[in-house]
Amino acid sequence: MKQAILYVCHGSRLKEACQEACQFIDKVKPFAGAPIQITTFLELSPPTIEEGFKQCVEKGATHIAVVPLLLLTAVHAKKDIPKEILSCMENYPGIHVTYGRPIGVHPLIPEVVIDRINERIQATPDGKVVLIGRGSSDPAVKKDLQEIAAFVQKKSFFPEVNVCFLTAAKPSFHEMLEVLKMETKPVYLVPYLLFTGLLMKDIEKEVRAINEVKDNLFLTNYIGFHPHLEKIFLDRVNETVLNEDQQFSFRKEEINCSH
């Protein structure tokens, strides 16, 4: 048996975003322990999942743990990545494949959000928090981000923690901004994104425009590169490699289901 780990990042047209994803994974690799570790991208950036899978096999891998570097479980994790895995397995039928979970809802996540706010400014108890999610047509994404927002509120002194989404879910980011234009108290905007990218650039542009006439919107950094996130992701890697009770064994019939 020779173990490989195939990391799958989202991908971006922005080179800096792909570099950040690789840097994040490079920080985790020394602790993962597998002799073969390859970073790939689902879309927009090379290498592809197929190319990475082939590299693993060429290096002698007999077992490949595919681990998505995604914040929440949506269509990419439930359908798009599994379809790519299935295609690879058809080309290399003798390889044993396990498939891991996205970072998801985790007890350490609220601390990451609160840390990002405190890094930006000394928050006040009367301030509100808004988590800005990527968004998805999958209702589970909205539910998960709302659950994270509730955890943040419970672990902090903020009276209100809301969510909005950049695409495919309501309330939209622009709808939220229209509401916030009328807000007089401090508002801490937390992009619930792993890394920079075109979406982050758009957020910065929109907030900057509003702050030309207001001074109460405080945009934090995105949440990647936090020690807690590195720990959670390493846990996701290890559980996929160990595959206790076979719960992470890849099964064709589970393509449309999450773990």
From TrEMBL:
Positions in coiled-coil regions: none
CDD domains: CbiX_SirB_C, CbiX_SirB_N
Name of the protein described by the UniProt record: Sirohydrochlorin chelatase
Keyword terms: Lyase, Metal-binding
InterPro entries: CbiX-like, Sirohydro_Cobaltochel/CbiX
GO molecular function, one term: metal ion binding
Lineage of the organism: Bacteria, Bacillati, Bacillota, Bacilli, Bacillales
Species assigned in the record: Metabacillus arenae
One matching Pfam family: CbiX
